[in-house]
Amino acid sequence: MMTESPGQATVAARPVPAAGAKATDLPKRGPSLVVRAKPPRTLDEVRVNLQLAVELEHATLPAYLQAAYSLDEAKNGVIAGMIIGIAMQEMEHFCQAANILVAIGGHPAIDNPAFVPSYPGGLPKNIGTQPGQQAFIVHLRGFSLDQVETCFMVIEEPADPVDILDSAPRLAASDIKDNYRTIGEFYDDISKALGELGDGVFSGTADGQVYGMFGIKPILTLADAQEAIARIVREGEGTPTSPEEGTGGGDDNGMAHYYSFYEIYKGRKIARAPDGSWYFTDELVPFDPAGVQILIDDPRQADYAAGSVAAVQSEAFNTYYSNLLKALHRSFNGSPDKINDAIGLMFDLKIQAKLLMQLPMDGQPGKFCAPTWQYIP
Amino acid sequence: MAYLTGPRLNFTGKFVADVSTVNNHPANYDGTNYTAADYANWDIGYWNPYGTGVWRLIDCAVTGAVRGDGTAVTADPVLSMALADADDQPPAKMVDLDSEQQMVSAIWGLVVRLVGGDGQAALRSDFAVASFTDLWKRSLTPGSLPQHTLHPACMFGAAWQSVLSGLAWGDVAGSPFLQELQAAATDGLLSIKFNVVGYNAGYWIGDDGTRYPPLPDFAMGLITGSIGVAGKDEPRFFTLGRKLQPSQPQSRSAPTLFYYATAVVDEARKALTIDLGNSIPFKEWRGDIVGETLQVGYLDSARTFQTLGEVVPDNAWYQRTAGIAGIALTDAQLTAVAASPLAVRRAGAGTLLGQEPADGKALRADQFVFRMVPGDSAETTVWATAFGKPLANAAVALAFDNSSLGGDGEPPVGTPPGALSFPPSVETDAAGKATVPFSAGDPGYPRAVDDIDGQVYGVRPTLDGSGAGSYGNPWDFISFLVWSGYAIPDEPSWEADIRPILAQYAALYPVMLPVLDMGDYDSVCKHLYSLQYALSLPEENPNYMPAVRDLSPNKKAAILKWAANPVRGTAPAKGSANGPAAPAAVASAAPAPEPAFVQASPAAETAPHPATYLRK
Prior knowledge:
The complex is a heterodimer. By secondary structure, chain A is mostly helical. Chain A has two domains: 18-291, Ferritin, core subunit, four-helix bundle (Ferritin, Up-down Bundle); 293-377, no CATH class. In chain A, 41% of the residues lie in helices and 6% in strands. Chain A has ten helices and five strands. A three-stranded antiparallel beta sheet of chain A has the order 2-1-3. A two-stranded antiparallel sheet of chain A has the order 4-5. In chain A, strand 4 and strand 5 (278-284) form a beta hairpin. Chain B is mostly beta strands. Chain B folds into four domains: 1-235, no CATH class; 241-356, Sandwich (Immunoglobulin-like); 361-486 and 595-614, Immunoglobulins (Immunoglobulin-like); 494-578, no CATH class. In chain B, 12% of the residues lie in helices and 31% in strands. Chain B contains nine helices and 33 strands. Chain B has an eight-stranded antiparallel β-barrel. An eight-stranded antiparallel beta sheet of chain B has the order 20-19-22-23-16-17-18-21. In chain B, strands 24, 26, 27, 29 and 31 form a five-stranded antiparallel beta sheet that branches. In chain B, a hairpin with a 4-residue loop joins strand 17 (261-266) and strand 18 (271-275). The longest helix of chain B has 15 residues, at 494-508. Chain A binds chain B through residues 72-73, 81, 307-309, 312, 316, 319-320, 322-323, 326-327, 329-330, 338, 340-341, 343-345, 347-348, 350-352, 354-355, 358, 377, and chain B through 16, 50, 52, 54, 56, 86-91, 119, 213, 215-220, 511-512, 514-515, 526, 530, 533-534, 542-543.
C-alpha cells in the first residue's frame, strides 16, 4: 500500500484533494458516448452483438497500454499498475464475450484489419457521441492526466455515476431509439436476449473455449453466460449503487474502471464513509511527471523513415501485435491452447513497446517514438 | 542427400538477429559492472546491450525451385510465395552457448512457413533447434558500410542447417512443385540450410557520447537458403556428401577466397550438385558477390584439373539458386569422380580454390552443441565418408580441443577435464556412422571469480591417420556447456537462494528491466505467474524465457520451487555455505582426475582458428 510519505515532494507538484474531502466533484468535459446497436432478439443478432462486444473490449487496449507503457514503473508504478490492471480486465471481458459467442455456436473474428482501431479516431464505428455533441476522438498518446480525464474517463463513464456525482446526470437520453448509453446497457440487452433464447442455444460443452486464467470459467449454461456478463458490467462500470465492483474484481481496491481513472486523475483513492458518502482517503495515487516518456501523438508506421531503427522496431511491434490477434483468433476458433502463445506475445509486445519508446523521434526534439498498433495481415 | 537431393526450393531475404550482448563479456556476469548512467547511455556491454534475443525472418521470398529430376521450375505458384516465420506465436530466439563459446549461436522456437499471396500457408513447420557453423570473413571490405565503429561480425558469414518437422501442408493443389515436395518427404521431414551475410552490428558514438545503432537495418542481415527433403536416417545438421575445403591456408591477414562446400553425386540421375552458398565471398559488405567464373571439376590421377562445369556467380544467381549448382555428368565423368577428389578453381587458374582431400575422406558429428548437468548422458553420431560413400570400420579418435573456446585464458575453459567423459575412440559401422556417448560430471565452479555457471568444453573427432592433406574443418568440433552441480534448497528463499540466481539475469538482459526486474523481490513477485509459466515450458518453446536458457535445470527447479512459496527470507552472511558464493573454496578444490585423452592439435594446422578473429 502506498502511503503519503514516499514521493511526497513530487506528489505535491499538483493539487490533490485533501484526505477526507468529499469525492463529489467528478469532472466532465468530454462528450457522452452511446453504443449504436440494435437490441438483439434472434440468435444471429446476439452473435452479432457479442462479436461487437469483443471488438469493443479490445478497442480500448491500444490507448490504455500506450499510456501505461509510457510510464516509468520505478517512478509511476502505482498508476501504471492501475492502468494495466484495467487493461487486463478488458482482456478478461474480451475472453468472456468470446467464450459466450463460442458457447452459442459463433466464431469470434479477431484476425482482420477492421478489428483494429486507427488513430486519431478510435473506438469502433458503433460507438458514437450523443446527438448534438462534438464527435469523440481517441488519440493514441502517452500518459497524461488530461488523457485520463478527456479520454479514458469518457470511455468508461457509467450510465449513472451514483452518489459521488455532484450534480444531475450529464447524460442526455439519446434521441436515437435503440442506442445504448453505455456498454453496460449494451451487455444487459445481450443478457436479456440470451434469457429469452434459453439454455437451448448453448452447446453445453467447454470445447473451443478459453478459460483458467483471470478466474474465467467455461460457459456451459445460460446462467454461466449471464453471470459472466454481470461480472463484465460490474467490473467496467460498477453497480448502480456502488463504484466498487464487489468481490472477484482484478484491479486494486476493486474499483470499477471509471473510478480507478478518477482516482488517478485526482491523485487520491476514494472510499465510502459509514454515512454512505464518498470521500478521499489518506492514500495518494502518486504521479511523478518526470517518470513519463514524452511520446509522439497518434504515431503511424509511415512516420518512421524506412530502414531506420525506429521503423524496424515499430514494424516488430506491429508484427507482435498482429500475431497476438492471430493467436487470439485461433484460440477462439478451435485451438484454445494458442492462448498461451498469446500471453507470451503480450510480454514481447511490452518489451518491444518499451524499446521503441527509448528511441528519440527524428525531427521532434524531446519526443520519443511510440508503437503504432497497426495490423499486418 | 538432404536438401541437395530431390526437389528443392530456394529463398532469399533478410533476418533479424537482435542478440543481447551484455553476456558476451564474462566480466558482466557478476552484475556489478555498470552504473545507472551506463544503462542510460547504452554503455553496458558491447554493441547491443538491449538486445531482445529475437531471431526473425523478414521479407523472405521464394526465388527458385528445382524438381527432383534436376530441372528448374519456371512456372509454379511456389515461385511467388513468401518464406515467413510464425504469425501466431512469439518470435524465435537466438542464444549463445556461453560467454566463452559464442560461435555456435542457436535458433530456438522458429516456425518456418511458406505463404501464398492470399496469406494462406501452404506449409507450416518447426525448425529443429540448430547452431550456425562455418563462420568466416565473407565480406572482403566494408564497402558502403558507413559506420563508425564497425563490429567484426558485420563482415562475417555463416550457415545454419537443420530439419523441419511437424509438417502441416495447406492447399498445395495449385502447385505441382509443392505436391512433389510433399510426396518426396516420406519421413515427414524437410531439410533446410541457409547462409547469412551482411549483418549489421556495432554502434557509433555521437558528439554527446551517446551510443547509437548504425543504419540501415541494425541487427539485420541477408539470408539465402534452400529447403529440400530430409530422411530420418541421415544427419540433421549437415549433408552427407563430398566435403570440399579451402585449398589456401586460412590466415587473419589474407582474404579468404573460398570456404567449405558440400557436393553430392546422384548416380541414377548422373549429376553432381554442389552447394557453393557459403563458399564465395562478397567484394564488399552487402555489395556484389565475387563474380569470377568458377570451374567445378575433379583432379585426375595425374592431379590435373578436369572441368565438369562452370558457374558464373552474380547476386541474382546467388539469390535464385542459393549458390547451388547442378552439373550433368557423362558416364565417364561419373566413373571418374567416384574416386577422384572434386575441386573448384577460378576459370583457367593454375591454383585451386577448394578441393576434396586426396583420399576423399571426411568426418563430421551431427549434433555438435550440448548442454549437460552433472550426471547427464548424451550422444552424438559421427559420420565418416570417403568420396561421399560410407566409410565403414573406420576408427574415429576423440579428444578435447578447447583451442577455439574462451578468450585470453580468463576465465579458464575446459577445466577440470574430468567433468566430461567420452571414449577415446569409436569405430564406424557399415553405414559409416558411430555413436559417441558423453557423460557429464560436476565441474564445480571453475569460473566462480566471474560468477559464471559451469564450464565449456570442446571435443574434436578425427579420423585415425589424419594428417597434413587430410580433410579438416576448424569448426567441426563438439561444444559442451556442463553446468555446476547445484542442490535444490529444501525451502528456497528469495534472499538466500533466488536473488543470487535471478539478479544476474537482470544485469545480463537489461531489456527486461522495464518489464521485470529480476533482481527485485517485489517485481518478481508481481510477475510470478508469468515467470512460472515461462520457466515451465520446453526450452525449445519461444515462450520460454529467453533470458534464462543458460540457467541450469536445478537452478530453474529451485526458482519454480520458490515460486510456489515465495518467501523473502534473509540474505546469508557473506561467504556462507550455499552455492557459488564461495570462490575461494572452489579455487582450492582438488583437481579432478585427468582423463586419458591427449589434447588434439587443431585440424587446421598452422592457421589460427577463425574464432580468434571475433574475440573481444
